[in-house]
Design a protein that fits this description.
The complex is a heterodimer of chains A (183) and B (274). Chain A is mainly α and 183 residues long. Chain A has eight helices and two strands, in the order αββααααααα. In chain B, strand 1 and strand 2 form a beta hairpin. Classes of the chains: A mainly alpha (183), B mainly alpha (274).
Chain lengths: 183, 274
């Protein structure tokens, strides 16, 4: 736990608060029942690249559990776990993208999107439905359809909005070695 | 902004007087019990017990009504979706088939399915009063110390307490930004889907940068005060455990053990009346 810096702790806390507010107020309904563009996951992916796997995993867990508790009265554990998994998984490539120092290259954007697509596919299509079946004995075809819909919409959301957030952020950082000596 | 969220409600009641740790342990045990069982009798018992607790806490129904309505709606829609996808899931689970109505095509109505859906709704609902109660009777700052006490590292516990602390602030930021953008004609509540998605960036980006700045300020302030220098920390809000606390934990533990033994004594987590 000693590598967990103060900044990461605060990022976890404030990040979870932002996650909650976004999922409550900035989810855009698509017209398909129970499916909306969850901007909160774009934010989660962004925080994962900025602060790494542990922070983002905790933002997912804490943010989702508190959101469910505050809004529905009770956390939906099977899906809470997946949010944590998604944050953690995407955070694993944070070091390789290294947005603070290197800016964002095309390669970095591709790596980010490949990772988020794989991680979210595993999370929403595999983990969430299996937990729903184990815990709630819900019919398999229902939970897998639900998972596939969530995966598609969240992968697209993170792919578009998440990428744009990263690009916008990278543009505010100065690249390493960008200073030149004046002649 | 007119949207209600659950928060601490001060009241003199036996449930409030219990320490946060007791309530956290109780809540977790209760959740575990409802997660594993599908036994109708156990679910009914847990449900009745949670309603009983609710009465003892002197929290009024209308204070938390919005959450209950929200959840009820969600649970009902979910049960309906289950029926649409698998009208005979109950037959699979209980192994018999009592047709009440042949219905249209695959949409039959069987006693097993009705019983299964009833159990599903019950299973989703019984945890709600306890969870709501846990939330409205535990002070946020005591919540963090309770997490720490049951073994969560204090840095993580502190992050949870920060999250609770900053929800209203972030909500205010969000409102301000959304209003400012709306004044410029940029809205996420109207218009075609793609346009709304695009507009959401106009809110997300400022919110992102404000939050990053906030993270910077708060973490600097905490560092300056020496946060995280020691391996352990003390909590201002931590209260000593009393007899009532041990009694409450004991009771919930008994209830949990009872529910597990009733659920699993015949090798199946379902109660089969057929």
């Amino acid at each position: 736990m000693n590598t967990f810096t103060t900044k990461q702790i605060v990022a976890t806390g404030v990040g979870a608060a932002v996650f909650i507010i976004l999922s409550r107020f900035a989810a855009i309904p698509t017209g398909v029942p129970n499916t909306s563009i969850e901007t909160s996951y774009a934010f989660l992916a962004f925080m994962a690249i900025l602060f790494g796997p542990v922070t983002a995993g905790l933002i997912g867990l804490i943010g989702h559990a508190l959101k469910d508790a505050i809004l529905y009265g009770s956390p939906w554990w099977s899906w809470v776990i997946v949010s944590g998994f998604v944050g953690f998984g995407i955070g694993l490539v944070a070091r390789r993208i290294n947005i603070e120092a290197g800016g964002l290259t095309t390669k970095g954007i591709l790596l980010f999107n490949a990772t988020q697509a794989i991680v979210q596919a595993i999370g929403w299509i595999l983990i969430a439905p299996v937990l729903d079946i184990l815990i709630y004995a819900e019919p398999a075809n229902k939970v897998f359809v639900q998972g596939a819909v969530a995966a598609t919409s969240n992968i697209l959301t993170v792919g578009v909005i998440g990428t744009l957030l990263l690009v916008a952020y990278a543009n505010t950082r100065s690249k390493a070695g960008s200073l030149k000596r004046e002649a | 902004m007119g949207v209600e969220m659950l928060g601490y409600i001060e009241r003199p009641s036996p449930v409030h007087r219990l320490t946060g740790t007791t309530k956290l342990i109780g809540f977790l045990l209760w959740t575990t019990a409802t997660m594993f069982t599908y036994d109708t009798r156990v679910l009914l018992l847990l449900g009745l017990a949670s309603i009983g607790l609710f009465l003892v806490s002197r929290i009024r129904f209308r204070e938390v009504r919005f959450v209950l309505v929200f959840t009820a709606l969600f649970v009902l829609i979910n049960a309906f979706a289950v029926y649409l996808f698998e009208p005979e899931q109950g037959v699979v689970i209980y192994g018999t088939r009592h047709v009440l109505w042949e219905g249209i095509g695959r949409f039959t109505l069987t006693a097993e399915q009705l019983f299964y859906l009833f159990n599903l709704i019950l299973k989703y609902s019984v945890i709600v009063p306890v969870a709501v109660l846990f939330l409205v009777t535990t002070h946020p700052t005591e919540f963090a110390s309770s997490l720490n006490r049951i073994g969560v590292p204090y840095k993580v516990a502190f992050a949870v307490s920060l999250a609770l602390r900053y929800i209203p602030d972030v909500q205010q930021d969000f409102r301000t930004i959304a209003d400012a953008q709306e004044a410029r004609g940029v809205t996420v509540t109207h218009g075609p889907l793609l346009k709304r998605a695009k507009h959401s960036l106009n809110i997300l980006l400022p919110l992102l940068f404000t939050s990053l700045e906030r993270i910077e300020t708060v973490s600097n302030a905490m560092d300056l005060r020496g946060f995280g220098a020691e391996r352990k920390r003390t909590w201002y809000n931590q209260r000593p455990m009393t007899r009532a606390d041990y009694l409450a934990i004991g009771l919930v533990l008994l209830l949990t053990i009872f529910s597990f033994s009733v659920t699993f004594y015949d090798g199946s987590r379902f109660y089969n009346p057929f």
